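In this section we walk through a basic example: taking a raw amino acid sequence and producing a predicted 3D structure, encoded as discrete structure tokens. The instruction is simple. Fold the sequence below.
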Amino acid sequence: MTDSLTAVILGVIEGITEFLPISSTGHLLIAEQWLPHQTDLFNVVIQTGAVLAVIPLFHKRFHQFIFNWADPAVRDYFFKIVAAFVITGAGGYALEKRGFKLPEKLFPVAIALLTGGVLFLIVEGWLGKRQRGGGENAPRNDIKHVTWTVAIAVGLGQLIAAVFPGSSRSGTTILFMLILGLSRPLATEYSFLVSIPTMLAAGGYKIFEAFHHGAGAMQDENWKMVVIATLVAAVVSFIAVKWLLHYVQTHTFIAFGLYRIIIGGAILWFVIQPGAKPSLDHGQIHAFAPVIVQHLVPVQFADGKIF
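The resulting token sequence is shown next.
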């Protein structure tokens, strides 16, 4: 497989999954079991491209922040976005200083995908029963209903997603907000508005570190692949988010829950079945084998010979 084709595939995956509640990190980890492993800088840059591309979709809200600042509801909504961002940023910085590294293994990704999928079905089922009578149980769709409790929950939800690959930043935060009574469109919008500065700040920090401390790594990076993947991720992300914002106006998240359960179950089965592995080269097999050995292969077979 050529570098350009690899970049296109990874760009498409990043663009589709970055904002949809199905976990971009989890899908990229899955893809890298078959595709060549990319650097952290590569992943950060293409993620940043995907994030920047969706900002125009929220131009009406940004227009309010600039020209309707005198409106207390608009001002309050803005500060609650900032609060959630600060909670996530402070927590993420603390994790970074403690040396936290994202586990690059399929087993926890499968569990997180499955868990999130089941939770979506449970929450949507509960909401259906709760809202059937309408009245005070009807979903709240005004920005004034984004409370400080919601802001704190979203900030913490983003941290949970940062620690558990496969849980999904948008998936976790949207679940919290649905439970707290927000409508699907408002929960989706607020989740995305908080994630934009969060991901841009994280990406900017990583890129700064790479420039400041890793001159050699910068020179060794395949920038042609980075550019191709970033452009593809940006275009696909714009389309995916525009579609989702319309989709949640009239649909539940049940389809996403089912998708997560199917793909999470498939990955779990794949990990459990050592013989059901794809055709990989020696280097990829070496990277993939520890996932099975560490989590599910009996100790007597853990000498590596089965691979």
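Looking at the output, two observations stand out. Residues 3-272 form one domain. The chain has one domain: 3-272. In the next section we compare this with other chains.
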